[in-house]
Amino acid sequence: MFDAKTEPHTGLALELESMRIPDLRVVAGKGELELYCRDQADVPQMLKDVLIRYVPDLVVQPCTPEATVEALGFAKARGLPVIPRGSGSSPFGGSIPVNGGMVLDAGNLDRVLSVDKEKKLVKVQGGCRWADVDHALSAHGLRLLSCPSSRFSTVAGWISGGGLGVGSLGGGHLSEIVTSVRLATPAGLITLRSPQEELKAVFGSEGQLGIIVEATLKVKEKGTGARPHLLLFKDLDAAVETAERLRRLSPLPEDLIYFSPGKLRYANKLLHGDHFGDGHALLVTSADEGSEKAVSDLMASLGVNEEKEYQARLLWHERYFPMKLRRLGPGMLGAEVLAPMGRLKDILHRAEELCQEFDLDPLLEVHFVRGNESLLLCYYLTDQVNQSAYTLDAAKSMVVTSSLIGLGARPYSLGVWNNSFADSWPAEEMERLRKAKERYDPSNIMNPGKYFALKGRLFGGAGMIFSPAGSGAAFGLMAKLHSPLGAAFRSLSSLSKKAMGPRERDPLVQMANQCAMCGACVSVCPAYALTRDERVTARGKLLTAKTLAEGGEITREHAHRTFLCMRCKACEQVCQSKLELIPAYEDLEARLEKAYGKDAAEIERFVRVAEVSPRYEEMVARGLVLGAPKNAMGGERRV
Ligand SMILES: Cc1cc2nc3c(=O)[nH]c(=O)nc-3n(C[C@H](O)[C@H](O)[C@H](O)COP(=O)(O)OP(=O)(O)OC[C@H]3O[C@@H](n4cnc5c(N)ncnc54)[C@H](O)[C@@H]3O)c2cc1C
Ligand code: SF4
Ligand code: SF4
């Protein structure tokens, strides 16, 4: 660890620090705490300010299960809410406080513990990133059965919410892949194993049971002969019908996605070429030679024309960068719902129609998985710099979600922002979680005030506003009145775009809004590995730039922390929005130096420590740090 200047701690943080718990970093500086006030979603500020108390009282970063239990004990003794957090890449608000409390950043529980090649099992700590698990497996000729497109997110984060992603058609939902979970609860450490009923309760529990400190997952051998195929259809119904056939093949393909014509148009824009034609696309990826044959035979029997292999591969690669689109907004909103297969066509048609009525340009994707549901992502670009247009688009987005739910869909996750639709969550799953919570967290300190009983500000009244009976009913009514409402939305949108947009755009703020706030850069940043302070990362620096541009104040220590950077460009390589970050750092540092000076001696000391740190060596060896001086490719840091 690099020992940088810090702001002095007070209150709870000082009390916890004085207990000297091994392997536990305590965070209490205002600037660093602010990074934990949000996740990937950028909810209109006005709404957040009124409804929830999102600034945590303190943040802890344990590196061991034992330190995690000690931190939970501290919180329990004081009745302090504990909000678990992984990479903060989920957009639903599950990892942000609604009433202050202690955020437990589990991202430092990041080790791969063992790989059992014979049994095809891997045991990891909860904060381990999917990319790191896959890297470790690769050395044994193994690979993951499935993972989220956000390979930089944590294993525990995906267990707690989500569970569907790359490879879910072949590999199944994450709950079919995880064989055991070790949970740190306020009552101590427990292990839940498949087929125990309580293990099921952990999936989608959104941190309301305890901290997932370890998990064991099934994996598979690396196969050969698999590849993606791209099929184009003139109409949506034909594409969905072919998808139905593909998802019933035996053996199953690994992955199957539908892309709307709008989505393909934007993919062309982002790739600066005319790679994909006009139509409804299916991207089907076989798992091995057996499934490749099944896919090819079906396509031949249906007489479906296939696009070129390179086009399929291009689109498959783009699948890992779904947030690149934000650049074109800047900003993106969307509805993520699970749609019953029997109603999928109706739901897709409704999404297209409503978006047209509301003046939104829909970019639709359907991820086909096993079972009776599929995951529909309905995104639209927005202009986040123009807060009036942005707030209006956020309202439209909720009405679209409500309308799709009216047709039988349900939200993919609840968190805070989907709480209005909590009544469409399966009652059986809710009951299972409630029972497990009574057993493992009777004092209700684990992520309280979320969808069991949302509280927040206004003496808890925020919960009423965000309830199915409050905003849920209001959105439902608006969805029914979509025609007259659409006309009003269109007029208001055009007014807000013309009259209320900012006259000048600060390039740094523009970039901060293009940033997906996904945390991919955090997972590869050698400066973060040494300081564990997110202010040194791209996400942290862009948020600092935004704070300054909005007239916020930062401390001198905060400003100086921003300079601790290797200019190694690992952040640029993995950036989800493909941002040119290094010139932005130069701009930000120049502004900071003017206002706060810079501590050249600390930067010098930092670079010396960083360059010989084992973590940096490992990153260079893995090719994550292409711009590293050690690779003789530039990236030299001038003090
Ligand atoms: C580019 C991109 C692609 C994405 N692709 C997918 C995808 O394919 N599929 C998908 O489902 N999602 C996807 N997401 C959303 C998100 O990345 C995933 O849901 C991811 O699994 C969240 O993990 P995280 O570590 O960021 O968790 P966070 O966002 O930090 O937290 C999510 C929830 O888990 C809880 N939690 C976190 N850590 C723990 C822990 N150790 N113990 C207990 N609870 C915990 C939190 O309290 C919160 O409720 C994507 C996001 C981005 C930006
Ligand atoms: S250049 Fe390297 S050290 Fe600097 S923010 Fe990017 S990843 Fe971190
Ligand atoms: S800078 Fe790039 S990688 Fe980092 S949070 Fe923003 S979009 Fe994600």
Structure description:
- It is a single chain.
- It is globular and about 70 Å long.
- It is built from 27 helices and 17 strands.
- The chain is an alpha+beta fold.
- The strands form 3 sheets. It has a 7-stranded antiparallel sheet with strand order 11-13-12-15-16-14-17, with helices on both faces.
- Mean pLDDT is 91; it is low at 630-639.
- Among the domains are: 228-411, FAD-linked oxidases, C-terminal domain (Vanillyl-alcohol Oxidase, Chain A, domain 3), CATH 3.40.462; 507-631, Fumarate Reductase Iron-sulfur Protein, Chain B, domain 2.
- Helix 14 (387-406) packs antiparallel against helix 18 (482-499), helix 19 crosses helix 22 (538-549) and helix 23 (556-562) packs antiparallel against helix 25.
- It is 42% helix and 15% strand.
- Residues 525-527, 537-538, 565-571 line the site of one iron/sulfur cluster.
Descriptive tags:
27 helices, alpha+beta, binds flavin-adenine dinucleotide, seven-stranded antiparallel β-sheet, 639 residues, binds iron/sulfur cluster, Fumarate Reductase Iron-sulfur Protein, Chain B, domain 2, Vanillyl-alcohol Oxidase, Chain A, domain 3
